[in-house]
Amino acid sequence: MNKILFWDIESAGVNALKSDLGFCLMVGYKWQGDKEASILTIKKKDLKTFNDGPLLTEFSRIYNEADLTVAHFGSVFDRRFIQGRLMINKLPPIPFTKMRDTCMIARSVANYSSNRLNTLGNTLSLTNKKIEKGNGWPTWWFRAMQGDMGAIDEMAIYCKGDVNALEELYYRLLP
Predict the structure, then answer these.
(1) Rounded CA separation 67/8 (Å)
(2) Model-level pTM?
(3) Beta strand 68-71 with 99-101: parallel, antiparallel or unpaired?
């Protein structure tokens, strides 16, 4: 049986969409069959210097165990962002493990008005939906970059919701 890893990242920085201008705050992940998602977060001492190396080292060990990975928009953003951050931190790359990208799968099989995780969750009436950012965004990121670990904890709940929604969406798209 394949060991399937569902995962998502949260990044921050001057431009949190680019590896050289941002850094990784956390990685949420869940193994197929696990009851709950887990979250790896940047440590307070590392947050002060935007050092995501220890976080990425820990996640790399987990990622390396997977036979298949699943992420939403992961082939375009998450995996490439992490690869860039690993290079910057002089760490070995994560392997090009087979990936299923639920955003790309949805785009290829249906013509929805949006392929965002939240929209697909609502459109397909999934039980696990992406948690609304509400009052948290963008202040979470600003607070986190100022060293507020409470903001990191709030974001971890949000990231866990993303991973749970991702897993349900993946199984819904499988047929």
Answers:
(1) 17
(2) 0.94
(3) parallel
CA distance 31 to 66: 9
Round to whole Å and give the CA distance between 132 and 172: 21
**Sign of torsion over alpha carbons 143, 144, 149, 152:** positive
**Percent of the chain whose predicted confidence (pLDDT) is above 90:** 81
Distance from first CA to last CA of the chain, Å, rounded? 19
Distance CA 86, CA 10 (A): 15
pLDDT at 116 over 70: yes
The contacts of residue 61 (CB under 8 Å, 6+ apart) are: none
Q: Which residues pair with 26 in a beta bridge?
A: 10, 41
Residue 51 buriedness (CB in 10 A; 0-12 / 13-18 / 19+)? middle
Where residue 16 falls among pLDDT bands split at 50, 70, 90?
Answer: confident
Parallel, antiparallel, or unpaired for β 38-41 and 22-31? antiparallel
Q: Please say whether the beta carbons of 37 and 28 come within 8 A.
A: yes
Helix (H, G, I), strand (E, B) or coil at 86: helix
The rounded distance, in Å, linking the Cα atoms of 155 and 98 is: 28
Instruction: Summarize pLDDT for 50-62 with one digit per residue, the tens.
Output: 999 999 999 999 9
